[in-house]
Amino acid sequence: MNYEDFCHIASVCTEQIGPKCRRFFSPSNFMKFEKDESGRIAILPFYLYVMRTVSLTQARIDMSELDEDSDGFLQPHEMEAYIRGLIPNLAQLRDMPGPFVQMYCRIAAHKFFFFCDPHRRGKACIKKVLLSNCLQELMELHQESEEEVTDTEQAENWFSLTSAQRICDMFLALDKDQSGTLSKQELKEYADGTLTEIFIERVFDEHVRRGKSGGPNSREMDFESFLDFVLALENKDTPEGLTYLFHCLDLHGRGYLTTADIHSLFRDVHQKWIEGGNYELCIEDVRDEIWDMVKPADPLTITLADLLSCKQGGTVASMLIDVRGFWAHDNRENLLQEEEPEEE
């Protein structure tokens, strides 16, 4: 539509809907969209812009009504209540079994806090929530029916029913003694046992809360900590995921990694690599390769800022904690060659 069409539609909408819709039809809004050689904008992008704006406005109203303290933040139970209210309107969730709704809301809400509550205060800023990719990812479940979404896409969307059930099944399978928490030994079986022992130890040191009771399960991972663990590993390239992992890699809590740290971390990966029947590796060569990938500001140390700025921090973390992650990096050229025929 050209600008004349745009103004005509604005008049029609104002007559039929009311004056509030005029804010979408300002000249400045028209100028924001890409134009063809005739100066026209495509209707679909404009329509999606309006729908997203309306959805965000409604979300802000709904969240503000749930904000018991009226401080612009949501606590976990308030976020869960917001998600519970959305379920009947989301095509892929409305048929969710009733007994699973509470668990689903718990899992879904946790991702908002992982990304919108970096200091782990138990309160997520509503503004951050509205601007986060999490809300957009959740709203995507409204746009398509399950029949139009592949199994892979459902598994990759944390907010899908398929993903929530996967997380629960994973936790239950690891919890061999059915205690409701995971020991270090149980967590070592995560991802078919490809994670290193030193990484599992560091996860418990940095991210598993110590119980007050001092009982046998006081030093085990509860379900909330497990959700953080999975979110970090599945979002290694995000600042939040990489920050979680860096605290584990920083063996001495100094805020940086040295060549000695890299050597200590990769030693476990090397052991699993050799046990898997792979060729011999030189740890020093891998260490040098990591330094070349990161190009740290200080040639003697690697900081979290270095990992974030190099854009390969997630890959580096995978190489140091997961033998499968190192294999994927080492065989990246072969993997690309294998994928080319499928793409063709």
Fold and architecture overview:
One of its GO terms (molecular function) is calcium ion binding. It is found in: Cytoplasm. Residues 54-89, 162-197 form the EF-hand domain. Pfam families: EF-hand_5 (PF13202). This protein is mainly α. It folds into 2 domains: 42-167, Recoverin, domain 1 (Orthogonal Bundle); 178-343, Recoverin, domain 1 (Orthogonal Bundle), CATH 1.10.238.10. Helices cover 61% and strands 1% of the residues. It has helices at 3-16, 27-32, 43-66, 76-86, 101-116, 126-131, 133-143, 151-156, 161-174, 184-187, 197-207, 223-234, 239-249, 259-275, 283-294, 304-309, 313-321, 323-330, 332-343; strands at residues 73-74, 124-125. It has a two-stranded antiparallel ribbon. Helix 5 (101-116) crosses helix 9 (161-174), helix 14 (259-275) crosses helix 15 and helix 17 (313-321) crosses helix 18 (323-330). It starts with a helix and ends with a helix. The model has no long low-confidence stretch (mean pLDDT 89).
Please describe the structure with a list of short key phrases separated by commas or semicolons.
61% helix, Recoverin, domain 1, 2 strands, 344 residues, EF-hand domain-containing protein, EF-hand-dom_pair, EF_Hand_1_Ca_BS, calcium, 19 helices, single chain, 2 domains, two-stranded antiparallel ribbon, globular, mainly alpha
Q: Summarize this, please?
A:
With 344 residues, this protein is an all-alpha fold.
Secondary structure blueprint with pairings:
Blueprint: H1 3-16, H2 27-32, H3 43-66, E1 73-74, H4 76-86, H5 101-116, E2 124-125, H6 126-131, H7 133-143, H8 151-156, H9 161-174, H10 184-187, H11 197-207, H12 223-234, H13 239-249, H14 259-275, H15 283-294, H16 304-309, H17 313-321, H18 323-330, H19 332-343
Helix pairs in contact: 4-5, 5-9, 5-12, 11-13, 12-13, 13-17, 14-15, 17-18
